[in-house]
């Protein structure tokens, strides 16, 4: 395995704001021409920001790995304008089109056997390719204007939380890409659901806003991989290769607390007497706890709001420089499964029953 990371990459990064792609079409065109010329453009999607390059060009894939500091055996997702564009890059099947009709464009990535049009560099040498059609108007306009599939991982330095606004993408990638498009806050805040159709049936590899229950409404049989539940044993061969790398890890240790509302408040109040800790909590919990180093997320029953806030909250909590960060362990159902999957890995499986 080769690591691509160089501190010497100092590009002049242009930062532009695009809210309405129709009004800003000349800017979209300029961004698209950078991609066509082999350059890198960070762009907003409905899930998280992506770090995009020409998905048919192995040299662009190498540049993406370098800019992100990502191992080159961790494959990239190809972003398409239309579900039917998949025909040029993958061997599709009936289940692909059933899923596409239900969830595309949107936060779903589908893995299929690849065609030779996709460079091995993009798939990290795998015989399969990941495909997704983002619904974000800026992402869609950019892919269409580029006239090619855009290979894009999340626009963070490898190992940091995915950026859900341009500020965090700039923090990580300024000087490492040609352009960053600021399209405001991401609506969902967690990366897309990934499902593999290249085995005998369907396997959920990464939970996201398209939930397991929603997938089961469309497909007869969906298995959940241990990786999707956040589980990983030393000798597991990861089916989504990204799952084997440490992800979303704050530099202060994160501890998940598992228990009822009152127990959480009591536990935190007690800990704060002796520990320098940061707490990721709901506005209501913050009022009950009081004091400093409280990072707000959504209300306890509002999983979409928690999803939108999670990665920003992790970055903000980390910046407080406390000795430990506490957060609540979400219920692993519906969108909660995606929150649980990201948090359990950020916490390196440290859960305290309270
Ligand atoms: O929402 C998203 O999916 C965002 C936005 C930018 O579209 N992208 C994103 O990409 O999260 P990335 O590279 O950070 O995560 C993609 C995951 C990685 O864990 C990678 O290993 C997995 O998808 N993956 C890609 N191709 C694969 C393949 N052929 N087989 C299995 N896993 C694959
Ligand atoms: Mg990522």
Kindly describe this structure.
There is one protein chain. The protein has 354 residues and is of the alpha/beta class. It folds into two domains: 14-228, DHBP synthase; 254-353, Rossmann fold (3-Layer(aba) Sandwich), CATH 3.40.50.11030. It has eleven helices and 16 strands. It has helices spanning 25-36, 58-68, 94-103, 120-123, 137-146, 166-173, 212-218, 261-271, 283-289, 303-319, 336-346, and strands spanning 14-17, 41-43, 50-54, 77-79, 108-113, 128-132, 150-151, 179-182, 193-199, 201-206, 222-224, 254-258, 277-281, 294-296, 324-328, 351-353. Strands 1-8-2-3-7-4-6-5-9-10-11 form an eleven-stranded mixed beta sheet, sandwiched between helices. Helix 1 (25-36) crosses helix 5 (137-146). The longest helix is centred in the C-terminal third of the chain and has 17 residues, at 303-319. The protein is globular. Residues 233-239 have low confidence and may be disordered. Magnesium ion binds at residues 153-154, 162.
Ligand species: threonylcarbamoyladenylate, magnesium ion
The unreliable regions are 233-239
Number of domains: 2
**How would you classify the helix and strand content by structural class?**
alpha/beta
Largest sheet: 11 strands, mixed
Instruction: Please name the fourth-level CATH homologous superfamily of the largest domain.
Output: DHBP synthase
Strand portion, in percent?
A: 15-25%
CATH architecture descriptor text of the largest domain: Alpha-Beta Complex
Structural shape: globular
Order of helices and strands: EHEEHEHEHEHEHEEEHEEHEHEHEHE
Q: What is the CATH T-level topology of the largest domain?
A: DHBP synthase
Overall pLDDT metric: 92
Instruction: Please tell me how large the radius of gyration is.
Output: 20 Å
Through-space gap between termini: 42 Å
Number of helices: 11
- Tally of DSSP β-strands: 16
CATH class of the largest domain: Alpha Beta
Give the helix level as a range of percent: 25-40%
Order of strands in the sheet with the most strands? 1-8-2-3-7-4-6-5-9-10-11
